[in-house]
Amino acid sequence: MSRFNALLQASFKSNDTEEWLDVHFTRPIGLVFALLWNKLNIHPNVITILSIFLGAGAGCMFYYTDLTHNLIGVGLLMLANFCDSTDGQMARLTGKKTLIGRMLDGFSGDVWFLFIYVAIAMRLYHQQIPCTDVAWGIGSWILCSVAGFLCHSPQSSLADYYRQIHLFFLKGKDGSELDSYQKQVDTLKAFPKQGAFWERLFYTNYAKYCHSQEKRTPAFQRFFMKWNASQKEETRLRFLEGSRPLMKYTNLLTFNLRAIVCYIACLTDHAWLYPLFEIIVMSAMYVHMHRTHERLCEELSRELA
């Protein structure tokens, strides 16, 4: 058991950035799978591909209104999440990290929730809007599109960015996946114009992803430039102190909370609750997290001036 606990701790990104539910539920199960599949010599990329099919299947189940299909959807999405946890833990423990793995890891969660939002939009289409005798109709597609593209996507990307920033200040570059838009552009330019299709595709999309994160965090970009010039240890520690309370929001804005709300909404046949929760509650957390982080960076920038 002591060896298992040591491996479990080693498979974490950090104690600061791990969510309670993941620490006590998802990660231990993920580690069991990771040890088993590593013994069978199964590569993490295979597990990620499996998670894509499981998550897509879960989304399809949420189209139906009966309890059986929805329970199957819950089970499939939980299995997909275990696989997603497993591939990351396995990669950290074994060092089996590849470019394709990075591509698949970011792609998998997007596929899960694309299927979920489409399924809920189709499910609601002929249902009546609560407290009215009017069918959702095209309104279901508008609701789910706003929730998915305008809320969910930017929430997840900024939460991931703040987590990687925190890991960078906590563990340094080797313990973080913090990247910059300019670095991805430079990498892209180094590839030949003919060939290297998958590499060019990845870095093109990843550069856009990094650019969207940097555009939304002007105060952090100014602070980071000044801190890189000074490298003050006191400032690093003060940043971590201010950033650490925000890690709970980065966790809430990723998977567990929205999955639980989705389960409840679909199982009770009030599927509209999930996209509405995304638009109202998750967006409120996103705004608070963003404003607080930017204020912290502005304060520290002034001290470094």
Number of helices: 13
Structural class: mainly alpha
Shape: globular
Sheet with most strands: none
Question: What's the total number of strands?
Answer: 0
- Sequence stretches where pLDDT stays below 50 over 5 or more residues: none
Question: How helix-rich are the residues, as a percent range?
Answer: over 70%
Distance between the termini: 51 Å
Q: What would you report as the Rg, rounded to the nearest angstrom?
A: 21 Å
Q: List the secondary-structure elements in sequence, H or E.
A: HHHHHHHHHHHHH
How would you describe the oligomerization state of the chains in this entry?
single chain
Could you tell me the mean pLDDT? Answer: 91
Strand content: under 5%
What features would you describe in this structure?
- There is one protein chain.
- The chain has helices spanning 2-10, 20-39, 44-61, 67-94, 99-124, 138-171, 181-190, 197-215, 218-230, 233-243, 247-252, 256-267, 273-304.
- The protein is mostly helical.
- Helix 3 (44-61) runs antiparallel to helix 4 (67-94) and helix 4 runs antiparallel to helix 12 (256-267).
- The longest helix has 34 residues, at 138-171.
- The mean pLDDT is 91.
Short description:
With 305 residues, the protein is mainly alpha-helical. The chain is built from 13 helices and no strands. It is globular, with a radius of gyration of 21 Å.
